[in-house]
User: What shape does this take?
Amino acid sequence: MSTIANNIAKVAARIREAAQAVGRQPATVGLLAVSKTQPASAIREAFAAGLRDFGENYLQEALEKQASLSDLPLTWHFIGPIQSNKTKAIAEHFDWVHSVDRLKIAQRLSDQRPANLPPLNICLQVNVSGEQSKSGCAPNQVQQLADAIAGLPRLKLRGLMCIPAPSDDPDEQRAAFARLRGLRDELNHELDTLSMGMSQDLEAAIAEGATFVRIGTALFGARDYGRSA
Ligand SMILES: *Cc1c(COP(=O)(O)O)cnc(C)c1O
Assistant: This one.
């Protein structure tokens, strides 16, 4: 078994155990492979081992890999910060965007989503830890933004996403994820997605209801930013 296939098996086992520990069906937790800085060959290997959903943060790097992997039926998720001048290419080349945190970006994505593609799946990114420097809307903006995004014709609002401040304390990890779940539960929209949990904290996220965990390092190993676009 290749290293990546081996890592996928280990992550799948972690997901299974975390789900079973709280009485959830493991199949309700999607594994989104975060392939930023990883070469197209690594994505091909992960595909061969059964993965279909891939997350990218950097547009130019993602477009290059997508072009060389166009023979594979992959689902592409954009998960990085979004500048206005990138929305057109994102609307054209991705199936999901997890990192929408302001209305202007959502409006542009809706306007620019090609008519021949299904509506773009959207998660609203929320800053649950309140750090100044992190992206994500404030928790008290979620209702208003969700209402506005739900009204945009070429978007489908699916749920909420967060990247909490890193913590080694499982209780602290769970508290941040519980906050996102609580915000989702308060909304008067039927949202089926909670995008939360990374390599270090996927167990806590699954305990609090994650439907996508976004996993990079635990699947592909440490990232080499020197190689990224
Ligand atoms: C890089 C990244 C991940 C993956 O993080 P790991 O710790 O490598 O699993 C998940 N989500 C987002 C938004 C990221 O940028």
Summary: Residues 34, 36, 57, 79, 163, 198-200, 214-218 surround pyridoxal-5'-phosphate (CB under 6 Å). The longest helix spans residues 3-21. The longest strand covers residues 155-161. Residues 106 and 149 are 7 Å apart (CA to CA).
